[in-house]
Write a structure and sequence with these properties.
1 helix, mainly alpha
């Protein structure tokens, strides 16, 4: 009878030790998983925000360049139109006078 009790005690002790070891391993793995999750999440967010920041900067730079180009085109067209108007006005007036003078003959 003593042998059976000893065997049960040994098995029980082994089971308790095994449970402590397994639980300890699970805690270590859980801690590792939590740390890994924090690191991975941090990397993903950092990359996302870095990408987003660069994307916004590119769009902003594009918008600024586009504004400069459009403003330049509009301003240049206005200057050219004004210049053409001043240049053409005498030509139109001269041709109108010439046409009128030819009709009078």
């Amino acid at each position: 009878m003593k042998t059976v009790t000893s065997t049960i005690n040994i098995l029980t002790k082994f089971h308790k030790d095994w449970m402590k070891t397994a639980t300890s391993n699970i805690n270590i793995l859980t801690k590792f998983h939590k740390d890994w999750m924090k690191t991975a999440t941090s990397i993903v967010y950092t990359r996302f925000f870095y990408y987003l920041t660069n994307y916004i900067n590119i769009l902003t730079k594009f918008h600024k360049d586009w504004m400069k180009t459009v403003t330049s085109i509009v301003y240049t067209n206005k200057l050219l139109t004004d210049a053409r108007t001043h240049i053409r006005m005498p030509d139109i007036t001269r041709s109108h006078k010439l046409t009128m003078s030819l009709r009078d003959r």
